[in-house]
Design brief:
The complex is a heterodimer of chains A (about 210) and B (about 230). Chain A is an alpha+beta fold. Chain A is built from two helices and five strands; from the N terminus they run αβββββα. Chain B is mostly helical and about 230 residues long. In chain B, α3 runs antiparallel to α7.
Chain lengths: ~210, ~230
């Protein structure tokens, strides 16, 4: 290929790259708003179980506090706290934290705690536990996670925050002991953190969403 | 390769040269997402759109593209189209997008698409290339849906679960026939078994057709002899 050929070939490539970029940019502009709205709705829906029965008027997805490791909450990845307010008064805090010591890998947990320190709901966001045994922690497979609703640090006392077989107050799962133990430990640590840092959690400025 | 009419292109893509069944292209997404009929449909439609549009664009620009730079240009065109389709899915079918996950962006690497650009669209007029894209895309989509439906029926004993990902509205868990199905079919090996069955079924049908065709021919010959 001679020099002219190289130049014109390069130009063709540049023009087509330009057209393709314009196409993607136009589609992005067209869909940007809808995608942001969808992502917000999906997030709010995933938080809904821990919000049920609460009265609040703040925008939950805009009040997130992202704690990068190392932090005092369970898990070695980022912990997210969503603060919920009604007329600027704290109503609840939702924690997305990770129980490190599941039977087959980390378990991501959503835990809601209201202003008085009672659990509003626990849900499993992500796990890879054994199907048929450890996966009974999912709310769709058994009602095991509902036993934490309304409990708090003090109901029971710290020593009671473990499985019945370990001398605590909470039911176990047949065929799985490591999985529920990991979850209870994560809940216990989160409640302790909440009691110690309550004022700070609600006063801190929201973390800007990454874009 | 003959270009043929639109109907012939459609027939070639859907049956004779089906990208999944005969050319065995694009197997990674085919095996990974076909756990339900709705998933298969979603990825099938996305692939169909990308394939048709990329064939049209490659064919329309084929006069200006020198052979030395054709591969980067195909990659550019296909990657841009896939990005656009992904954004559109995120905007209008967010649940489907979450369910298909990485396999929407991975359409870029579906070799069935670059193969059609290279083998057909770069050598044929735009009308025939669009016909080829629709035929091949529909053939791929049909296979995804058949395997998805089979794995859902046998593996989960239900059909059309999560139809709401396409139609919107309340979560819909499909029509269920039993409490549980044959778990193996849902697991990754089940995808290989299902594809193997589909390929075997196609060969069997082709074989039956051919042998019944030659049987009637020899019968006619015998009658002529008498």
């Amino acid at each position: 290929m001679n020099e002219r050929g190289i130049l014109s070939t390069g130009m063709t490539l540049a023009v087509i790259a330009g057209i393709c970029t314009a196409l993607v940019a136009a589609t992005y502009r067209l869909t940007e708003e809808r995608i942001a709205a969808n992502e917000k709705a999906a997030l709010e829906q995933s938080l809904q179980p821990a919000l049920a029965g609460l009265f609040y008027d703040s925008d939950v997805s805009e009040s997130q506090l992202v704690l990068q490791p190392p932090h005092a909450l369970p898990g070695s990845d980022a912990a997210i706290i969503y603060r919920v307010f009604a007329e600027d008064q704290p109503v609840a805090a939702l924690f997305a934290v990770t129980a490190r010591d599941g039977f087959s890998g980390p378990i991501r947990i959503l835990l809601g705690v209201d202003a008085s320190g009672s659990v509003t709901g626990v849900r499993i966001l992500q796990h890879s536990e054994t199907p048929g045994l450890g996966d009974k922690i999912e709310s769709s497979r058994s009602d095991w996670v509902y036993q934490f609703d309304g409990r708090s640090m003090g109901n029971p006392q710290l020593v009671g925050w473990s499985l019945k077989g370990d001398g605590g107050e909470f039911d176990q799962l047949t065929g799985a002991s490591i999985t529920p133990r990991a979850i209870i430990k994560a809940i216990r640590e989160t409640l302790i953190y909440y009691d110690a840092n309550r004022d700070h959690i609600f006063a801190a400025a929201a973390t800007e969403a990454e874009q | 390769m003959t270009t043929g009419g639109f109907l012939e292109r459609l027939q070639t893509g859907l049956w004779k040269d089906n990208p999944g069944l005969v050319q065995l292209l694009g197997l990674c997404p085919l095996l990974a997402v076909t756990t339900t009929l709705v998933n298969g449909f979603g990825l099938g439609i996305a692939t169909l759109l990308v394939l048709t549009l990329s064939n049209a664009l490659v064919s329309a620009t084929r006069r200006w593209i020198r052979p030395e730079i054709r591969i980067p240009i195909y990659v550019l065109i296909i990657a841009s189209l896939v990005t656009c389709i992904e954004l559109i899915f995120k905007a209008w079918f967010p649940a489907l997008d979450r369910s298909l996950g990485i396999f929407i962006p991975l359409i870029v690497t579906n070799c069935a698409i670059v193969a059609r650009a290279e083998v057909f669209a770069s050598r044929n007029p735009i009308g025939a290339s669009i016909g080829d894209g629709i035929g091949m895309g529909a053939g791929f989509a049909m296979l995804l849906m058949v395997i998805g439906a089979f794995r859902e029926l046998v593996g989960q004993a239900s059909i059309l679960s999560r139809l709401d990902m396409i139609t919107g509205g309340e979560p819909f868990n499909g029509f269920s026939f039993a409490d549980s199905g044959l778990l193996l079919v849902i697991l990754p090996p089940g995808a290989f078994f299902s594809l193997g069955l589909a390929v075997a079924l196609k060969k069997y049908i082709d074989f039956k057709r051919r042998s019944s065709g030659s049987a009637s021919k020899s019968r006619r010959l015998r009658q002529a002899e008498r």
